[in-house]
Amino acid sequence: MTIFPIACFLDNYIWCIQVENSLWVVDPGDASPVLEYLHQHSLSLGGILLTHHHADHTGGVNALLAHKNVAVYGPEETNQWATTLVAGGSTLDLPIGQAQILFVGAHTRGHIAYYIASAKALFCGDTLFSAGCGRLFEGTPEDLELALSCINSLPADTKLYPTHEYTLSNLAFAKRVEPDNNAIVEYTQWVHAQRDQEKPSLPTTLALERQVNPFLRATSATIVQQVSEHAKRPISAGLDTLASLRAWKDNFRG
Ligand SMILES: [Zn+2]
Q1: What is the tally of structural domains in the chain?
Q2: Could you tell me the distance, in angstroms and rounded to a whole number, from the CA of residue 120 to the centre of ligand 1?
Q3: Is residue 123 scored above 80 in pLDDT?
Q4: What's the CA-to-centroid distance between 176 and ligand 1, angstroms?
Q5: Is 157 exposed, middle or buried (0-12, 13-18, 19+ CB in 10 A)?
Q6: CB 3.0 to 4.6 Å from 254: which of 130, 143, 172, 194, for a disulfide?
Q7: What predicted TM-score, i.e. pTM, was given to this entire model?
């Protein structure tokens, strides 16, 4: 089994999971690059996994189904495309392995993630990005805290496959809120080198995110101090810091 991205739009990745001649795709916002890849490599579409309802994750589903009528798995909020609705806490036995469904509603109310333990892979959509997290379009900071702690309970060597290449801009914010974190400096150098060669910065790992992602570090004394200075009021560690970080990042221009 191999996992690789097909880039689409400005900074989206459609993660592809290939088993023999069959290709499963996660969040196909656009069908054409997937159809092109299938054709070029003589592969057949195996199935589609959706994490949430946004158009840049679902826009290609109908055209892919017109090409081949495959199963589409997704949460309730994707019911206009999903042929099988799946809920957090359930498991799916798929040709690509058993997938555990994690409920991570925050970016959207019903957002889910797919954890394939045999590949140590988490397809987390727009919940967690490398060095950042998704905006709270529909959920609350409490929802975000729950979603992140759910992801953070997975093994440290879990590979995370988010849908956007936002790593460098996220790292600029991470460095702003934790200026003395050397792991952020080193990782930024590595990501710059990857991007200079037009390679993705992803997947990342949970172990690395625990070192560099401010949204997984809302108890760090430095971050708590920085958000307190920014908000001009004392902010407590944990949820209050997480909420303040998200609000600050929403308006941050690195
Ligand atoms: Zn989204």
Answers
A1: 1
A2: 23
A3: yes
A4: 25
A5: exposed
A6: 172
A7: 0.98
